Sequence to fold (525 residues):
Amino acid sequence: MKRRTFLRNCTGLAASAALTSQLRIRSEAQAQAIKESSPAIVVDPKPMFDISPRLYMQFMEPLGVADSSVEASWSYDTDNWRQDFIDTTKDLAPDVMRFGGLLSRYYKWREGVGPPDKRPWYRNYVWGGKETHRVGTHEFVDFCRRVAAEPLYCVNFVGDGRQIYAHTREGNRTGDAREAADWVSYANDPDNVERKAHGHPEAYGINLWQLGNETSYGRGGFTKDQSIATTIEFARAMRERDPKIQLICWGDIGLGGESWASDLSDRAGQHIDYIAIHMMGQTPLRKETVLNGFEYQHAPERAWEELMELIPVRIEKKLLALEAELDSRRSKLPIAITEGHLSLQPHNANPILTEWLTGVYHARALNLYQRHSDRVKICTAADFNGMRWTTNALMHQVPAGASYLLPVGAVMRLFKRHNGKQGVTVKAAPSNLDITASRTGDKIVLHVANMDYSGSTEATFAVEGLVTTDGRVFEISSDNPRQEASYRNPDVFKPREHVLPASDVFRWRFPARSVSAVELECRAA
Fold:
């Protein structure tokens, strides 16, 4: 061996030995500090499951005169999507964009394809007024491509069995299995003549399709048995056109509190890919609540207490019951939560949803879904866009031409941008911190919501079997719990980045009412 090579190797070995010694010292220091100092967040880095890439879905639906959300996002001056709307949605970075909702009960997809000036207006029976069909299949898919989201369409599932839509003044507005199958062909068949005649030679490749919407809710629709039989009929017809599509089918609770999920799984499991539910009914628990109306404005801390009560009763209880039901039938079908938001009065328009008072509530809901991502593969915590309704992630102002994120959207953006690929376990944490953890390689990511209204919480970080070498915190917090988002301050809830101070022991103080994403760079001890 040449002398120069020998010396270089010796230098490398010495550096490696020094690093190993440094890591060992730091590991011992971190372990000792955890025993002696502030409360610790302790993570077991063993991967438990893969985290679904579809946990931050958004949901677009034309809402007529109730909230002209889709019409208002289209610029008739440029005959295109509003650029501010595109830019803000790209920043939100949704995994999936769903189109449909109750509208799907009377939506006729063929009216929304072809030359825009030839498309007929149609009546919006649920939300009032009429829709122009200016945003049809091509425009929606184009929007999804621009914001890097996967398109998801709700098909007209025979009007969810509601005969009222089969006998309207405008004729039969329900859609059968063949109509749904034709839509799959239009979207996905490379040789589809109809789509090509409309000037779109390339197939859209829409993979996700939901059969109907809220089929079990209310009276006048399908019974459970009818819905399951119709699900099988639609699935067979649609898969005949494209066997690769994934079908999301309704299994939520019906009249009398009976769940449809287990029977749907037993009888149609081989035909479907997801069981769909909605997380509606996130209503106050207390009879004398301050959350409905405007009383919260005079009692923000009381409102905070009520919000923190809701997660285990309104969301977690329902999710655990569904998982137990499917487990009892030995069903491995994943869950798709395709709608769900905080349900307060005034209906869909409570201003508390624009204020940071609700930020931690939304973070806790998203943490819950991620902790259950072994089963929950698609979910959302809000509707998507609107002008008046406050149940949305994104608002766009007309005529100001400004789009911005409400607190739920800001939290979804934060957690989506800073997340790992595999779920890991938080073994210990201060009781007032709601935390979920993930990892990608040797990077550990924590989503942290401080449930304390008035107090900050300091904690050290420990990852079992690994040594933390570096870290960053991306934090949303506000000194004013009633800080609101509006077109005047569109960036008010953008996170602030902090570098964890260099130390043998890493720690951070989480401000009261804050939501944070913590990234820890780790190495083997």
Q: What stands out?
A: The chain has two domains: 29-50+422-524, 58-417. The chain is about 30% helix and 25% strand.
